[in-house]
Amino acid sequence: MKKWLRGGLITLAALQTIASGWQYLFPRSFYDDFPTVRLDPAYNEHLVSDVGGLGLALTAMLYVAAVVLDSKVVLSALLAYLIYAATHFAYHVTHFDHFSLTEALGVGTGLGIEVVLALLLLYLGRLVHWAESAAVRSAAPKRGPAPQHPLERSRSMTEPASDFADLPAPAEGILVTLFITVRDVARSRDFYSRVLGGTVVLYQNPCIVRLSNSWVIMNPGGPPTPDKPGISVVDYQPGETTSIFLNLRVADIHACYEQWKANGAQFLTPPIDRASEIRCYLRDPDGYLIEIGQSTGLLHGTHAATLSQDATS
Questions:
Q1: 52 burial type by CB count under 10 A (0-12 exposed, 13-18 middle, 19+ buried)
Q2: Would you call 208 helix, strand, or coil by DSSP?
Q3: What CA–CA distances, in Å, run from 172 to 79, 175, 212?
Q4: Comparing C-alpha atoms, which of 161, 144, 143, 156 is closest to residue 202?
Q5: Are 114 and 85 in contact (CB under 8 A)?
Q6: Among 239, 246, 237, which Cα is nearest to 265's?
Q7: What pLDDT digit, counting tens, does each position of 178-229 carry?
Q8: What is the pTM of this model?
């Protein structure tokens, strides 16, 4: 379904790119040569180029939606396109005065197809969202029923109920959680729940996944807010250096390595014995480094063996 959804979004975006690019870059040619437009009176370059610019903005939304396939981004882009296509269609089917029968049928059919395609893609987007939601529910470890919270009853049935009993909300003291900026919430939620075996506590806004006795909180980036003025939250740019990373301590690193690798995790190396501990690393979908470690000699006062390739670590 995702392939069809992405293909449909790219199709709409491509069609809109042609029309809007033509309007914006060559407004006189668009007015003179595009079918039906020349039938209108008095050419206005400002008006035509402005409409082209707005169309290019809509095109950008469609391309972004096709790349990220996030349900909210897809919904926003398709609703915007549907409003544009429906109003465009409504205008032309009520203004056939100067059209031949062939032109009227061609314009009405072509614009009607755009409206229908947008509606079909909206429905397909909801199917993808429902399928992802079902996958999250089936991947989460089986737990006893949590007490029903009033907010759960008001949530849409298309989204898994939040596990309010598992939210990181201490009655006293503090709890340590990790916030990461992600490009695709659904993709990261799947990784931390299905691949690493976490429990989805909150589906989105923000997404919270519990990993054993800690929590990973994830959301897309954004501009400054009143409580952090001047600070933007940006996507992580993976590379050859890092200064902070998630460290998971496990009881059996070899079992975790085999299980998570089978689930699709991409490890940098197999577990390596460093005397004090056995450890290995993997990256999440956004490129964040995650260390997996099992304490061995450290429990008896043995420090790590220094390897030539990482003499300072």
A1: buried
A2: strand
A3: 45, 9, 20
A4: 161
A5: yes
A6: 246
A7: 999 999 999 999 999 999 999 999 988 899 999 988 999 999 998 988 888 9
A8: 0.47
Is-contact 88 51, C-beta < 8 A? Answer: no
| Residue 198 to residue 125: CA distance in whole angstroms | 26
Contact partners, residue 151, CB within 8 Å, separation at least 6: 162, 164
pLDDT of residue 62: 86
Are 170 and 193 spatial neighbours (Cβ–Cβ below 8 Å)?
A: no
Q: Is 256 in contact with 265 (CB distance < 8 Å)? A: no
Where does the chain show beta strands of DSSP type E?
Answer: 177-181, 199-202, 207-211, 214-219, 246-249, 266-267, 272-273, 277-283, 289-295
Strands 214-219 and 177-181: parallel
Specify the amino acid at residue 3: K
The residue with tokens 């995790």 is: 265
Q: What is the rounded CA–CA span in Å between residue 119 and residue 96?
A: 25
For residue 294, give the nearest of 308, 274, 311, 313 by alpha carbon.
274
CA atoms of 179 and 170, how far apart (whole Å): 17
> Closest Cα to residue 177, out of 203, 219, 210, 136?
210
- Dump pLDDT digits (tens) for 72-94: 888 888 888 888 888 878 877 77
**Exposure of 101 in the CB half-sphere (CA atoms within 13 A):** 0
> What's the token pair of residue 307?
């390897």
Q: Could you tell me the CA-to-CA distances from 27 to 19, 43, 52 in Å, in that order?
A: 10, 9, 8
Please provide residue 281's backbone torsions phi and psi, each rounded to the nearest 5 degrees. -130, 150
Tokens encoding 268 = 């940098």
Q: What is the largest CA-CA distance in the chain?
A: 91
Give dist(CA 2, CA 19) in Å, integer.
26
Would you state the structure tokens that stand for residue 179, as one six-digit string? 């916030």
CB 8 within 8 A of CB 74: no
